[in-house]
Amino acid sequence: MAGNTFGKIFKLTTFGESHGKAIGGIIDGCPAGLEIDFDFIRDELDRRKPGQSALTTQRKESDNVEFLSGIFEGKTTGTPIAFLIWNEDRDSKDYDHLKEVYRPSHADFTFEQKYGVRDHRGGGRSSARETAARVAGGAFAKLLLQREAIKITAFVSQIGNVILNKDYKYFDIKTIESSPVRCPDKDTSDRMVKLIEKVKSEGDTIGGVISCFIQGVPAGLGEPVFDKLQADLAKAMLSINAAKGFEYGSGFRAAQMKGSEHNDLFEKAGDKIVTKTNYSGGIQGGISNGQDIYFRVAFKPVATLMMDQETVNKKGEKVILKGRGRHDVCVVPRAVPIVEAMAALVMADFYLRNEIKI
Amino acid sequence: MAGNTFGKIFKLTTFGESHGKAIGGIIDGCPAGLEIDFDFIRDELDRRKPGQSALTTQRKESDNVEFLSGIFEGKTTGTPIAFLIWNEDRDSKDYDHLKEVYRPSHADFTFEQKYGVRDHRGGGRSSARETAARVAGGAFAKLLLQREAIKITAFVSQIGNVILNKDYKYFDIKTIESSPVRCPDKDTSDRMVKLIEKVKSEGDTIGGVISCFIQGVPAGLGEPVFDKLQADLAKAMLSINAAKGFEYGSGFRAAQMKGSEHNDLFEKAGDKIVTKTNYSGGIQGGISNGQDIYFRVAFKPVATLMMDQETVNKKGEKVILKGRGRHDVCVVPRAVPIVEAMAALVMADFYLRNEIKI
Amino acid sequence: MAGNTFGKIFKLTTFGESHGKAIGGIIDGCPAGLEIDFDFIRDELDRRKPGQSALTTQRKESDNVEFLSGIFEGKTTGTPIAFLIWNEDRDSKDYDHLKEVYRPSHADFTFEQKYGVRDHRGGGRSSARETAARVAGGAFAKLLLQREAIKITAFVSQIGNVILNKDYKYFDIKTIESSPVRCPDKDTSDRMVKLIEKVKSEGDTIGGVISCFIQGVPAGLGEPVFDKLQADLAKAMLSINAAKGFEYGSGFRAAQMKGSEHNDLFEKAGDKIVTKTNYSGGIQGGISNGQDIYFRVAFKPVATLMMDQETVNKKGEKVILKGRGRHDVCVVPRAVPIVEAMAALVMADFYLRNEIKI
Amino acid sequence: MAGNTFGKIFKLTTFGESHGKAIGGIIDGCPAGLEIDFDFIRDELDRRKPGQSALTTQRKESDNVEFLSGIFEGKTTGTPIAFLIWNEDRDSKDYDHLKEVYRPSHADFTFEQKYGVRDHRGGGRSSARETAARVAGGAFAKLLLQREAIKITAFVSQIGNVILNKDYKYFDIKTIESSPVRCPDKDTSDRMVKLIEKVKSEGDTIGGVISCFIQGVPAGLGEPVFDKLQADLAKAMLSINAAKGFEYGSGFRAAQMKGSEHNDLFEKAGDKIVTKTNYSGGIQGGISNGQDIYFRVAFKPVATLMMDQETVNKKGEKVILKGRGRHDVCVVPRAVPIVEAMAALVMADFYLRNEIKI
């Protein structure tokens, strides 16, 4: 049973291989009457696009989204919104040397084990190119959430051993996009850039962490048992290529804490009930409590290296995989809009899933 | 849209509040002809049961499962397996003082925001008692997986600042259950016990980490995009009460690693293709690669304390919540079978979801 | 992939075999705060119960529903509502003679082909006893719909060749329940009774038709493509044991009609837009138009006869199946509350599925 | 919650409005390795295409399917198959007169009630043009079923009062496609053609019935309770535009039958257990029994007439709707491949849903 659909009410189904004709998707369940800001959608896709700086892959992708349905006179009609992004710059001959080889820590081997066949060109369906469709879908989710004043912001908080140690509250959000690595602290950003350049010169790659916070979420979104808000966020994040870990609120740090430190005491602020601290990360019992939701996602280093690697071919024979092609040294800055898009899909879905009050 | 069902083909739906008549569930999609080992199911539930040692809550629950359907002459029939566990020892008067009060870091406030009403007795639906139904469901999943020689083992690898620093491969699995905290290293286990006793004497609680590994998984389970194997595992784990983080394979450590360190090189071992290292945690591109799957789950400290806490009541007035009742100081040892059960549900589902090969 | 759940938001999952311990179900997705009229639920179940008159099977079933969860202080809490009905009067020895035999037009043979095993006692899961759980679930749906003034009424419009030829508008609804065959026309009802008695005296059984109409449905419920309102009603009805056909509005008669006869012209009535005729059966393009929804469901004769029948056993050997046991001659009158229950489940689901207007 | 996806494992999601840029769909869950016969797919679409004879609408649609993903070197890869059909010949000015008017027995009024907005051009999403995507999806399902020797055949058995009174077994299947109305009996076909011509000359339209039979279905497909094989077939058929009724096996005739007539007695034929008669329509208890599955679907007359009709505009004012445009007099012959496609989607889904035997 295939798994190319995300969401239960606000549903995104994506399709496409990196070197097929096109990638794209269908958004089903977006309410009618939503005004579409096409510039915003293009901007979101541009944020994910390769070639944004010397630090990222120079593969040229125009990533222009073409909408085929579900929009009439600038508004959603309530029917499925199909969109596609044509694949250009796709010389599949570039990949002939991969036809018989399993690249280390890629999905070549596992796809073949699962399906018996695989489209070996550029990773096919397992390519991160698929995430462009997520960003497009997430842009619609963001437009829906904006109406409810729910705002999602992600940034890079770690690359290699360069770690941003300050809380998201102490930054100017607007500086995120001006950093080449999407880190809102100038000094840390500079050190991250330097690290990436060094790693690049070695033909190597490096991992990192993205932090994300969601503001303006009303209390009451989420479900108490299996579909806890944090559970669906975790699934959304771990479904992103290269993601290795997820924590929300106090996260792994909670393991070391005592209840008397960790409990978020309630108090009244104006006519709202709030918590004094927010180790809960805005969620209690799987349901939002009105405080900021925040979480962190760990990413592994890119598996494609500019150096030789030992591996095997289909017959199990030892072969040397040469480093070549155009690839990111660190995918984390470009994954920022993907993290936001997936978070937006989760939040839009829970917003629409919320029970009718009777 | 409620979320009380887990799984797409092997589906578990749970019901029940901690102080209602009963909790239980329905397993739908378990294949026909599976032989049921009722002793095994009872043992699994016993592992989760409170009152197993002086370290855990003394609430008496017999947790006897009664099966109502779907089993005939000791085997599954392919029809829904309904089961229930009657709630005994449920004096709801114990909870009258909580009717108007929001306990810190519990789900009282969020349930009320979501539903308008709540069953205030013992946490109602948000009580960890619900997880007994998961353990029962997971036991069926384990029986199914056993036939395929897939084995799931979890243990406690951290409580507070007491951390087990050795890899799961260096332990004797059999010692897990003989440790009162389910930690397979005698010395670490002893220090954990001491820490819990100390915390208990302070009226406080403490968090921890559970590690889990899955052996015998064939290559090819999982889905490449949204339903990646690790994504569903992450969702499963974050759906457990008090879970705060999930990482698999290299996890958050991957953020600090270079590709040349992290890549798992393929080699041939006998007639199988394996990897020399396993930073991938047995999963590449969302699909199992035949190596061990392993992951870690962080748990926050229990929110119910044996000390006074400030909070507010429904009107937003400041009140003091007195510490009382019978509660775990550290829920992590008892969460071990729950982690295993949720992992088993994920693996059984992916096993059955696997495409027919044509 | 099993199919024991009905509905997408208002979901009913049923379980149980006719001669297992109990049958029952879980309703997930019923909004919180719905006041439960327990007498109403019992009355609904009593309408389906066997032994209501000399015309129906004398199997004694108390059919008392026991609620296990999801209700607190007389109202739904938004969490799953589990309920069960214990099976009494279940002497499985009655069925030993069926262990090796395939009863004609029963599900014995197909269950065995599908599952390899079967619970042969009284039809097991394929027994119409399962529908008691549907009636219980449907009662909750009805309670929800009542708040919106949506009312569902079914009655018997044909048994054998005795046909009620008048439209539902010309009857007094209240007379349905006073007829032993649930036919609101005294004369037709009498003739139906006579026919059933005659058929019974022959040891035979007879089919029939149930008509149903739904009043008070607002315009705008349903979905335009695959989940058309009539499509889900058709599925709901054909999922009832012994149902053989479904038609709504003009139904099969439409095949003989011209567009100029069949089109329902719009007109203004007060401040509402209505149609002059209602061949559309209250649905256009899969979405309710505010007029009455009405449909008919055909039922085959009961397959269990009080006469000898030729059949085969598991080995394919010819055997004679003796007529014995307690069985309905005509199941149609008792299916009336089942038709209503399934219609209520569909309508409650579409009511909750309706998009948030933005 | 939108309903643009059909199927649970073999899933088709469609998109597109009649006068948008394109229509199309995504097939998710088609197994890998299926060889694609592109000519067959084009032929299937040609069967549905308008303009096949003087009897059908002359709207020119090339209906060329463009495949975007999921196929590599002529075979499916197991990933989503996206396809689209560009809309040509779409002069939306043709529809300006419908912007403010509700056409009788069309979905204009109900879409507006549901969504607040509507794409008024040619029916938008409610146009039968959407069914081209179903035929494309169904073609893949047919290719999958062919491998299992499951064959689906539909034909026209009634138009207006011209009724084909012989069973499907007495016809030469090959003659279906040579009849301009897809009726395999030459004489009946001629009378149907004459009737359609007469109705056309009156500016009117006419309804009809399609019969369908499925051969080669192994025993054991289907689910016993809500997802009975006939229930999903009923839903599939009633989801087709203009469908008004569904019956399978004995259908509505069963209402008049006695059990002793209707029961299908088992017997052994060679080494298979078969039934002597087939009133069950190949399904018992929701599960296929190995005999032919057959059913009938009623269609109403096309709602667009070549004559004036009274209706109202958005303000509720009386207006006269002029007959104009290019429309089918009788949609039934063109609906034959749609009935087959929907049946194929159901059968492919149940084939893949069938439980793993352990």
Brief account:
Four copies of one chain form a homotetramer. Chain A is an alpha+beta fold and 358 residues long.
Task: Note down, in words, how this protein is organized.
4 copies of one chain form a homotetramer. With 358 residues, chain A is α+β, with helices and mostly antiparallel strands. Chain A has one domain: 4-Layer Sandwich (Chorismate synthase, AroC fold), CATH 3.60.150. Chain A has 7 helices and 18 strands. In chain A, the strands form 6 sheets. A 5-stranded antiparallel beta sheet of chain A has the order 1-2-3-7-4, with helices on one face. In chain A, strands 9-8-10-16-11 form a 5-stranded antiparallel beta sheet. A two-stranded antiparallel sheet of chain A has the order 5-6. In chain A, strand 12 and strand 13 (272-275) form a beta hairpin. In chain A, helix 1 (38-48) crosses helix 7 and helix 5 packs antiparallel against helix 7. The longest helix of chain A is centred in the C-terminal third of the chain and has 22 residues, at 332-353. The two termini of chain A are 36 Å apart. The model of chain A has no long low-confidence stretch (mean pLDDT 93). Chains in contact: A-B, A-C, A-D, B-C, B-D, C-D. Chain B binds chain D through residues 1, 29, 31-34, 78-79, 144, 147, 224, 352, 355-358, and chain D through 1, 29, 31-34, 78-79, 144, 147, 224, 352, 355-358.
SSE blueprint:
Four copies of one chain form a homotetramer.
Chain A: E1 5-6, E2 11-15, E3 22-28, H1 38-48, E4 66-67, E5 71-72, E6 75-76, E7 81-86, H2 108-115, H3 131-146, E8 151-159, E9 162-163, H4 186-201, E10 208-215, H5 229-238, E11 243-248, H6 259-262, E12 266-269, E13 272-275, E14 283-284, E15 287-288, E16 293-299, E17 309-312, E18 318-321, H7 332-353
Antiparallel strand pairs in A: 1-2, 2-3, 3-7, 4-7, 5-6, 8-9, 8-10, 10-16, 11-16, 12-13, 14-15, 17-18
Helix pairs in contact in A: 1-3, 1-7, 3-7, 5-7
